[in-house]
Amino acid sequence: MENFRLRSIIGVFFLVLSIVWVAPNVINLEKSWWPSKKKMNYGLDIQGGLHLVMGVDVTGVVSEGANRLLLGVKTELQRDGVEVQEMKVSKPAEGEIEITLGSADHAKVTKLFDDRYSTSLQKMSDADGKLVYRYYDAYLHDYKNKVIQQAIETIRNRIDEFGVAEPSISQQGEDRILVQLPGMADAEKAKQLINTTAKLDFQLVEEKPIQELMTLIESAEKAGSYSITTLKYSEYVNRLNADLKGKLPEKTILLFEKIENAQNLEAGKRPYLLRTDTNLGGDALSDAHVTFDQYGAPEVALRFNPTGANGFKVLTGQNRGHRMAIVLDKVVKTAPVINNEIPNGEAVITLGSSRNRDQSMEEARMISTALRAGALPAALEQLEERRVGPTLGADSIKKAQLASFIGAFLIFLFMIARYKAMGLVSDLSLGINIVSVLALLTSLGATLTLPGIAGIALTVGFAVDANVLINERMREELRHGSSFAMAVKEGYARAMSAILDSNLTTGCTAFVLYYFGTGPVRGFAVTLLIGIATTLFANVFLSKVMVDIIVHKFGVKKLSI
């Protein structure tokens, strides 16, 4: 009797808990005393939203890393007093560097690589006074994967700052990222935030007359039959610098600033020749926020971390009287003259006065949010965009709900027609099962998708299967002359092995789908796994409690079956 009372208490407790969790999805309880106010999250296929596929410039990151590696090796060799004839990156996409030794000590150079770069670089050749080193294949693969994962994490941080519930951000292939934003109210702003690469660099200006630069630019554009109006800005800059290679000084790049009063770069651009070996970027930042200048115009204040602050101090101290450009996404935002050393590690991005205050404020917020959330390690290119409207989502969910309701209703009718009073107990257990599934999805913060609704419908099927096994076993016991109480006991006990076996095999399948699947497949697997747990609770444990209460508490001798 004590065991019966304990099972009854446990059953009622979990039933009440399920109702507490699921109630906010049905009734507006945000301003009430109700203990749980969390609502279920709906996927992109139900409530609509934004679907983006972004291409990641992984090769560009590897090339940039190879150039930084070369600079680091050169600095270390100079510090050790080793002068080589020439060093260059021969294959940027593979991280391959070539060193012409000249009169340099061969042993010292190879010792440097063996001691400090043995885990990342392998020696490819050593002949005719030349050393060639390249990234290990495993290291290069891991490097590229880290770039993708860092980009995913950065995008996730930005979306979290924007306040989108349950975004889905995952890797596709080797260089693509899938971004799904369910229920996105302001798709344009979210897309703008994601597409803002926010790659920040501080680069010294190589002083050269603007007219001379414009002549070089015009000749390259004329020879290649292109301009900034016919190409994307990033493509234009890359092609222009490639065409001018050899005409520009080594370790410099040509970038542009939008001139004041111009609506965009196409309408008015000012060229800058910038050095690429400054080696100070957005990864050295600790904070970025919107402030205002002495005239009340919005600007972005930057604060460096200790390492970045020291680098900024050295850079400004050694280059007094020179100009330093603050470059965001290959666009020069400002290029002030360095008057004094800046020891406190702070800088400001000014936005100019060519737009109204609201536009400037919006841009300042967007830049500060992107920088604060983290600079993307690689440039992004939007490859695909789809918007799922709420009408399509509502239509889809109505059809799915209708199908589920019809299926459940037919099962309810079948159970009552087949098993009479025990069928009614099974139906009640089945209703509690569905409520428990929705309650667990809500409490876990899982996202319900259309495949998830299919998983719930399947749960109804294998949940009632457990009751069919139990009821048929009870019928068999009654045919053998057992009392109803004994038939209940034996029916549940003897059917349990078959119920556990069937649910275990279904659970294994669902686990494999969850582990190896992505997106909709995982949504289906989650609801299936939850359905298995609630089936064992509601259609096995709780239905037994209900029958025991009817038999032992109310003294009913027999139920029709």
Provide structural commentary.
The protein is α+β, with helices and mostly antiparallel strands. It folds into 3 domains: 2-48 and 390-553, Multidrug efflux transporter AcrB transmembrane domain (Multidrug efflux transporter AcrB transmembrane fold, Up-down Bundle), CATH 1.20.1640; 58-139; 196-387, Gyrase A, domain 2. It is built from 14 helices and 18 strands. The strands form 6 sheets. The protein has a 4-stranded antiparallel beta sheet with strand order 7-8-2-17. The protein has a 4-stranded antiparallel beta sheet with strand order 3-4-6-5. A hairpin with a 3-residue loop joins strand 7 and strand 8 (176-182). It is elongated and about 105 Å long. The chain starts with a helix and ends in an 8-residue tail after the last helix.
List keywords for this structure.
Multidrug efflux transporter AcrB transmembrane fold, Gyrase A, domain 2, 4-stranded antiparallel sheet, 18 strands, 561 residues, alpha+beta
Mean pLDDT: 80
| Strand elements, count | 18
Strand content: 15-25%
Overall CATH architecture of the largest domain: Up-down Bundle
The name of the CATH superfamily of the largest domain reads Multidrug efflux transporter AcrB transmembrane domain
Question: Which residue ranges are poorly predicted, with pLDDT under 50 across at least 5 consecutive positions?
Answer: none
Structural class: alpha+beta
What profile does the largest beta sheet have? 4 strands, antiparallel
The name CATH uses for the topology of the largest domain is Multidrug efflux transporter AcrB transmembrane fold
